[in-house]
C-alpha cells in the first residue's frame, strides 16, 4: 500500500499441478474416446463379419438344399405315339405310311425330311434312329462341387443356372454340327474301331472340355466364364438369366474364346436385335478378309405373348424345329428353363438341366461321357411354354444363309390369321441396324419381360424332374 506497487507472483507449484491435472483429464478423455471408437469399430467389424458369415451360411444351405432338391429323380414314362411322326432338329422319325408298316420296319436311313415334303415321302429310321439321335445331343445340367466362382462362394449352380445350362446345350449343338456334322451319332456301347471313329471321339471330348466347370483358358465356354462376362449385363453369380441375356452372353463368350482358340476363327455368333435379323450386319460380320464365309450361329430372342404363349405361334415354333439348320429353342416355363429340340403332335421334346450331378474333371484322360448325354427324352405341352424364348440356327455356308433368308418368312408368319403378317415371330431387314433411323417397334420388350426368370417360385415344384423311358402307344 503507501504508494508502493505490489506485484502478484503466480505460484509455479499450483500452476504446474493444475496443468498436469488438465493434461491427465485430456489424456483420459482421448483414451476413452479412442476406446469408444475402437469399440464401435470392433462392433462394426463384428457385425460385418456376422453378416458375411450369415451370407456364406445361407448360400451354403441354399446350395445344399438345391443339391438335394435336384439330385434325385422319379421313375416315370414318356409316351410316344406310333401314329404320329417325331421331329428332332430337322430329322423325322416314324413308321412307314403303309398298311403293313410299323415304326421298326422303316429302315430307310439317311433321308432328310423337310416340312414342305409330302407326308408320303417322309421316311425315318424308326424309334431306334430317334433314340440314337436324341442320346447324341450334349446334355448340360446343374453341377456341384466345382471350383468357387470368382467374387462369390458358389461351388454349384443348382437353383439358378438352368438358363445358362440351356444356352450351353444349344451352343454345344452348334459346335457338334460345325465339327462333327448333323449326322454324327454317339455310340456309348460300341468300341472305337478305326481312325475316323477315334478322331470323332477326340472332337466330341474337345467340345465337352470347352464347357468344363472351371475358370480356365482351356474351358472358355464354362459357366464360370459365362457368369464373369454376364457382369457386363448387370448380372452377379447366383442371378437368374432370361433367354435374351443368355443369347448375348453366348456371343460374348464366343468372342472371348476366339481370341485364345484358333478353332473358333471361322465361327461367328450373331444375335438379332429388336426381333429383327439385319442381313447387311450378318454379311459384314460373317465375311472374312479373303472373301470366304464364316459359319454362322444365329440367335433370335423373341417374345411371343404377354404372360402366356400366344397360341397362333405354336405351329410356327414346331415348324422351325423341322428345319435341318435349326439348333433348337431355349425357353421353358416360368423360372424353369428347358432346351427344346423336337416335338410330336402338340408336345415339345426337350432336354432338362434341372438335375444336379457331381462335377466331372474333363481334363483327365478318358473322362466319363455318360453324364453329358441323356437317355430319357421328356415332353411338355406347347401351351405351357413361356412366351420368352430364343431360337437358334446354325448356317454352315453362305449358301445356307441365303437359303435361310429365302424360306424363313413362310415359317415365322402365323397361318390362318387375317392380321398375321403384322406379327411374325421375327423379321428380316435388308439393311444395317446402325443405318435404320427408326428401328421396328417391338411388341414386347424382350429384356423387361425377363422378370419371369428373375426369381424362384416356391410353388414351382419341378414336376418335370423325372427319369423317363420310351413307351409306344
Topology:
Elements: H1 12-69, E1 74-80, E2 86-88, E3 91-93, H2 126-135, E4 143-144, H3 162-179, H4 195-210, H5 223-230, H6 243-260, E5 267-271, E6 276-278, H7 279-286, E7 295-303, H8 314-320, E8 326-333, E9 336-344, E10 347-351, E11 357-358, E12 378-381, E13 388-395, H9 398-407, H10 409-412, E14 427-429, E15 466-472
Helix pairs in contact: 3-4, 3-6, 5-6
Protein model, in words:
Its EC number is 3.4.22.-. Belongs to the peptidase C54 family. Keywords: Autophagy, Cytoplasm, Hydrolase, Protease, Protein transport, Thiol protease, Transport. The chain has ten helices and 15 strands. The chain has helices at residues 12-69, 126-135, 162-179, 195-210, 223-230, 243-260, 279-286, 314-320, 398-407, 409-412, and strands spanning 74-80, 86-88, 91-93, 143-144, 267-271, 276-278, 295-303, 326-333, 336-344, 347-351, 357-358, 378-381, 388-395, 427-429, 466-472. Strands 2, 3, 5, 7, 8, 9, 10, 12 and 13 form a nine-stranded mixed β-sheet that branches. The chain has a two-stranded parallel ribbon with strand order 1-15. The chain has a two-stranded parallel sheet with strand order 4-11. Helix 5 packs across helix 6. The protein is globular and about 55 Å long.
Task: Assign an overall shape.
Answer: globular
Could you describe the largest sheet, including whether it forms a barrel? 9 strands, mixed
* Share of helical residues: 25-40%
Strand content: 15-25%
Helix/strand/pairing category: alpha/beta
* Cα distance spanning the termini: 133 Å
Integer-rounded radius of gyration: 31 Å
- Provide the succession of SSEs: HEEEHEHHHHEEHEHEEEEEEHHEE
**How many E-type strands?**
15
Uncertain residue segments:
1-18, 67-75, 96-123, 441-449, 451-473
Q: Calculate the mean pLDDT score and round it.
A: 78
Q: Quaternary status of these chains?
A: single chain
Number of helices: 10
